[in-house]
Amino acid sequence: MLMENEAATPARAQLPQGDRSLLLVDDDKPFLQRFGRALEQRGFDVTTADSVAEGVAAIRAKAPAYAVVDMRLSDGNGLDVIEALRQARADSRTIVLTGYGNIATAVTAVKLGAIDYLAKPADVDEVISALMHETGNRAEPPENPMSADRVRWEHIQRVYELCERNVSETARRLSMHRRTLQRILAKRAPR
Q: Cross-referenced NCBIfam families, in alphabetical order (predicted)?
């Protein structure tokens, strides 16, 4: 039997019965607040954290049923939060959000217990769909996948960040001429 509040909010009725606790970890505070409110409006009991330390502390206080974790955080890597959640609660469902997607971190996130890996910007409905997606079923292919130029640009940006914004070191690691790399870095991101 549905309560009046649940009948009035169709999105809430779509959530499975039981624990609706969700941990949202991202170091972009405006995004964290907006996304947290949107998830609360859809029936989740949201706890927010803006660092690895806060995320792990929230998990120790009460391990949530769901989590949405950014990969790059100001004090470390979101994989640490995913691992802490898996150890605290094996049945939790975790989604990784990142602006710097790559295959190696996606594989690591899945091995640590994440059920999906979404590129930013992802909207709330995409995240909820990924959280509620039945395991074992194939996910729908994205309607607007990244272009090959965008994937290349994302990879270059990631290596550039890993090299602490050192152009010479990035060019060496990418086996690319330094001037070519500088021209690529000076351009806007392709679509």
A: ActR_PrrA_rreg (NF033791)
